[in-house]
Design goal:
By secondary structure, the chain is of the alpha/beta class. The protein folds into 2 domains: about 5-215, 3-Layer(aba) Sandwich (Rossmann fold); about 225-430, N-(1-d-carboxylethyl)-l-norvaline Dehydrogenase, domain 2. Helix content is about 50%, strand content about 10%. The chain has 18 helices and 11 strands. It has helices spanning about 5, 20-35, 50-70, 75-80, 90-105, 130-140, 155-165, 195-205, 225-245, 245-260, 270-275, 275-290, 300-305, 355, 365-370, 375-385, 395-415, 420-430; strands at about 10-15, 45-50, 105-110, 120, 145-150, 170-175, 185-190, 210-215, 325, 330-335, 340-345. The strands form 2 sheets. An 8-stranded mixed sheet has the order 3-2-1-4-5-6-7-8, sandwiched between helices. It has a 3-stranded antiparallel sheet with strand order 9-10-11. Helix 9 packs across helix 10, helix 10 crosses helix 17 (about 395-415) and helix 12 (about 275-290) crosses helix 13 (about 300-305). The longest helix has 23 residues, at about 225-245. The protein is globular. It binds nicotinamide-adenine-dinucleotide.
Length: about 450
């Protein structure tokens, strides 16, 4: 059965969540285009979530975003509606398209809604038992030829497939956040997956304008395989620095150096807060369960969770406080777990910390400018070459982190999570917006 036939009845589970809503939007828009071109066919997109209120918000979100997409793609709409003499103005075409998008979407709380679906995208909470229950129930409901796409960030796909009685029919389709914007999809193909599902997944990526990077079916895959180990490295570095500088300044230093010296879009603790300390802990547990001798653990993470400091986002998308405190999305303080409160960046001891780090190797360079610079590669080479002749605490921390990140990248290739350095580098550059892949020769 080809992709077009399967797209006639699609389901998203966990559709009101962060990832589910983005996946729902992508599919709703695609079905909107298909339905406009194929008036003789029926299209249904089932959006399922246990959270009723959020489903209402989801419909509003899809309508607004589809309108914005239609306005951006007005030339595509002009071609689409060229034979519709009644649609002349841009606004009329936009309204017609958005009407078409919304016409095919239906929402509900129970899996029953998915019973005729041929493609099912699952983006429920990252909990193995929950996903298992969902798949087991779906297996009894949906047609035998239905295919499943899970957005799990860490759980081995073959485990979910076996537990859910859907072996050969489940593939890892790991969208990045936000799915409608991020180009990367990590494709995790378990050994015994149906070849039809694999080729369909590649066709779908082209249709949704996504770039596929294959990862092997090992817990955490490439993205979290690097991120979790990078976070744990940073926490170990903090513990080493804390002996001399104190815990709070150490968090500040490692975060600042990972952003400003390694030229990343955000510091490692800001990223950890963005993902959520609770999510980080959950992924750690999955990786420990499924990777023999992984020994991935952090007392600091466990301590913060006990203290209820979790990061993550509010329902409106604002950043919640975690390792760092935020004001309008920008870090303004660091949490002190001994005092149960945040220390402001402009107060002691943080205000004295910058001086201790020493001079930045090239303070003019910033991630934001370089990410748009056509001469980026050249500038990066010069920047890292300049590290050799300079010294300072900040640079020492940066060098250690840079090399640890490279070692993690190489480990993922050695463990065969990634087929080559290229895949690791692609995930970090495309999915995490790093300016360079961790496996590089800049410091050689
Ligand atoms: N947030 C990210 O950055 C990110 C990135 C990549 C992958 N992922 C993965 O995507 C999945 C979803 O993560 P998220 O961050 O969107 O979570 P989320 O908490 O924002 O959303 C999960 C949604 O699932 C719904 N849900 C829970 N149980 C359900 C059930 N039985 N039936 C239907 N819906 C149910 C919840 O109501 C919620 O709306 C997870 O597997 C996660 O690991 C997350």
């Amino acid at each position: 059965m080809d992709l077009n036939t399967r797209l006639q009845n699609v389901t998203v589970i966990g559709a009101a969540g962060k990832m589910g809503s983005g996946i729902a939007l992508l599919l709703a828009q695609e079905l909107g285009f298909m339905a406009s071109e194929n008036k003789d066919k029926n299209f249904i997109l089932n959006l399922i979530d246990i959270n009723d209120n959020s489903l209402l918000g989801l419909m509003k979100y899809i309508r607004e975003q589809a309108t914005a997409t239609a306005e951006r793609q007005i030339n595509r709409l002009r071609t689409l509606y060229k034979d519709h003499s009644d649609l002349v103005e841009n606004g009329e075409m936009v309204s017609e398209y958005v009407h078409e998008v919304m016409l095919h979407v239906r929402t509900g709380k129970t899996l029953e809604l998915a019973k005729d679906s041929l493609m099912i995208f699952e983006a429920a909470f990252e909990k193995e038992e929950l996903k298992r229950e969902i798949y087991q129930e779906l297996a009894t409901l949906v047609p035998k030829e239905a295919f499943f796409f899970t957005n799990t960030s860490s759980i081995p796909i073959h485990i979910l497939a076996e537990q859910g009685n859907i072996s050969t029919r489940l593939i890892g389709y790991h969208f990045y956040n936000p799915p409608a914007v991020q180009k990367l999809v990590e494709l995790i193909v378990p050994d015994n997956v149906s070849p039809e599902l694999k080729s369909l997944s590649l066709d779908l990526a082209k249709r949704l304008d996504k770039k596929i990077v294959p990862a092997n079916d090992i817990a955490g895959f490439i993205g979290n395989g690097h991120f979790i180990r990078d976070g744990l490295y940073a926490l170990r570095e903090v513990q080493n620095l804390a002996a001399k500088f104190g815990f709070v300044p150490a968090i500040y230093m490692v975060d600042k150096v990972s952003r400003d010296y390694l030229l990343r879009p955000m510091g490692i603790f800001q990223l950890l807060d963005y993902v959520g300390i609770d999510v980080f802990q959950m992924i750690l547990a999955v990786m420990n369960r499924y990777i023999p001798k992984a020994e991935l653990q952090s007392d600091v993470i466990d301590r913060y969770m006990k203290l209820g400091v979790k990061g993550g986002q509010t329902s409106s998308g604002a950043q919640k406080d975690g390792f760092l405190k935020y004001d309008k999305g920008k870090p303004v303080g660091v949490y002190d777990p001994d005092k149960y409160q945040y220390v402001a960046l402009q107060d002691s001891p943080l205000k004295e910390t910058d001086a201790k780090l020493g001079e930045h190797p090239d303070a003019r360079l910033a991630w934001k400018d370089l990410s748009k610079d056509s001469d980026k590669e050249n500038k990066l080479k010069k920047y890292f070459a300049s590290w050799k002749s300079k010294t300072g605490l900040g640079l020492d921390i940066a060098k250690r982190h840079f090399l640890a990140s490279k070692e993690t990248g190489k480990l993922l290739v050695d463990m065969k999570v990634a087929a080559s350095a290229d895949e690791v580098n692609k995930v970090l550059t495309l999915g995490f917006f790093h300016l360079y892949g961790p496996i590089n020769n800049y410091l050689e």
